[in-house]
UniProtKB/TrEMBL annotation:
Pathway: Amino-acid biosynthesis; L-methionine biosynthesis via de novo pathway; L-homocysteine from O-succinyl-L-homoserine: step 1/1. This is O-succinylhomoserine sulfhydrylase. Homotetramer. The keyword Transferase applies. Its EC number is 2.5.1.-. InterPro entries: Cys/Met-Metab_PyrdxlP-dep_enz, O-succ-hSer_sulfhydrylase, PyrdxlP-dep_Trfase, PyrdxlP-dep_Trfase_major, PyrdxlP-dep_Trfase_small. Catalyzes the formation of L-homocysteine from O-succinyl-L-homoserine (OSHS) and hydrogen sulfide. The modification N6-(pyridoxal phosphate)lysine is found at residue 217. Keywords: Amino-acid biosynthesis, Aminotransferase, Methionine biosynthesis, Pyridoxal phosphate, Transferase. GO terms for molecular function: transaminase activity. Belongs to the trans-sulfuration enzymes family. MetZ subfamily. Transmembrane segments: none annotated.
Length: 402
């Protein structure tokens, strides 16, 4: 097949972001299919025994086993690398496989890391419960406070990790400023960019070393599959992360890789449309509830920083209702259109109560320190008509007396 340009960086790096998202990494078979093929295979066959020996020895390129490489997964990896402006990328079975793999591959017993405390619940479980069992210490800081990042550094600090915007408090971390603090001390910076995606925020351009994803969310975009991705410099991805993935096996299925490939084709359009809708709903909610935490609204304490480092504020935000957990749950139960779901980044609008769902695995004290209140509700705005979303929220708020 002549035009297999999606894998040829001399051509693909000339493409702009939208083109990379549609065509980057595409690898056509001799059939010339337009849509990426799903290589649903665990193994590979060889013309002769010497070829397989050379592939195992790394002397010639080529697949050996789908725990190590698969064409459909490699298409996705190359596409994400191009979209991020990264040298390399590896995809994994879920977002948490990506987050935990980065930490376990990069850190050893005796090392220390610093995390912004407002992070995805399971990520905090890994840093607070799993890593200490292997002699890796973690300090949680207020990600918005640069002095806390500076003060948390120890002689053995190897990694800074943060989400921005953070789930579900919508705290923003100044990516460039935190990277500068880290790099003065030779510390690697990992950004979980799930809420923004490359369509809205490019952490590597702002100085981060590694960007990590739950591709489950906006990158799939239709709530179909779990997937994770980590992109960064070739040395870290190929020599630190790759051996960890291939030997522990949290590999992404070729089918799931294909689902995400298809999702990426429309990521930019969806991210723009859903961001605009979320801003509209958020501004309206400010007239109805005591507190809205939306990075795109002027009421957000870090609004200026949001405008400086993000193209748009994204489709997810939180708000608080009076009456604590009881009122928050009653509100969810009164919804007629928006689904009660702890997922995000779907074309369908979804709402959840973080304290009892996504953040229930962390202690009430840590939760309170993170600012996850009992009356907090998180919404992921989808692609429905915005007026229908406002109407549904309005009738639900009214029916529970809010
Ligand atoms: C969902 C999510 C994860 C974990 O992704 P999974 O695919 O569910 O494992 C990690 N970080 C953030 C910010 C998320 O939203």
């Amino acid at each position: 097949m002549k035009r297999t340009t999606g894998q040829d960086r001399t051509i693909t790096t000339k493409w702009r972001a939208a083109t990379r998202a549609v065509r980057g990494g595409t690898w056509r078979s001799e059939q010339g299919e337009t849509s990426e093929a799903i290589y649903m295979t665990s193994g590979y066959c060889y013309d002769d025994a010497e070829t397989v020996a050379d592939r195992f020895a790394g002397k010639i390129p080529g697949m050996t086993y789908s725990r190590t490489q698969n064409p459909s997964v490699q298409m996705l990896e190359e596409r994400i690398a191009l979209m991020e402006g990264a040298e390399a990328c590896r995809c994994m079975a879920s977002g948490m496989a990506a987050m935990s793999s980065v930490m376990l591959a990069a850190l050893s017993a005796g090392d220390h890391m610093v995390i912004a405390k407002a992070a995805f619940g399971p990520t905090r479980w890994v840093t607070d419960n799993l890593l200490p069992r292997f002699g890796i210490a973690c300090t949680a800081v207020d990600g918005a406070d640069l002095n806390q990042w500076r003060d948390a550094i120890q002689p053995n600090t190897k990694l800074f990790f943060f989400e921005t915007p953070a789930n579900p408090t919508m705290d923003i971390v100044d990516i460039r400023a935190v990277c500068d603090i880290a790099h003065e001390r030779g510390i690697r910076v990992v950004v979980d960019n799930a809420f923004a995606t490359s369509a809205l925020q490019k952490p590597l351009e702002l100085g981060a070393d590694v960007v990590a994803y739950a591709a489950t969310k906006l990158m799939d975009g239709s709530g179909r599959t779990l997937a994770g991705a980590v992109a960064g410099d070739a040395n870290f991805i190929n020599t630190v992360l790759h051996p960890y993935i291939r030997n522990t096996g949290n590999t992404l299925s070729p089918f799931n890789a294909w689902v995400v490939l298809k999702g990426l084709e429309t990521l930019d359009l969806r991210a723009q449309a859903q961001s605009a809708a979320a801003l509209d709903v958020g501004a309206w909610l400010e007239t109805r509830v005591p507190r809205v935490l939306h990075p795109g609204l002027p009421s957000h304490p870090q609004h200026a920083l949001v405008q400086a480092q993000m193209k748009a504020a994204g489709s997810i935000f939180s708000f608080e209702v009076d009456g604590g957990r009881e009122a928050a749950m009653a509100l969810l139960n009164a919804l007629e259109l928006i689904d009660i779901s702890n997922n995000i980044g779907d074309a369908k609008s979804l709402m959840t109560h973080p304290a009892s769902t996504t953040h229930s695995s962390i202690s009430p004290e840590t939760r309170a320190a993170m600012g996850v209140t009992e009356g907090m509700v998180r919404i992921s705005v989808g692609l429905e008509d915005v007026q229908d979303l406002k109407d549904d929220l309005d009738q639900a708020l009214r029916s529970v007396g809010l």
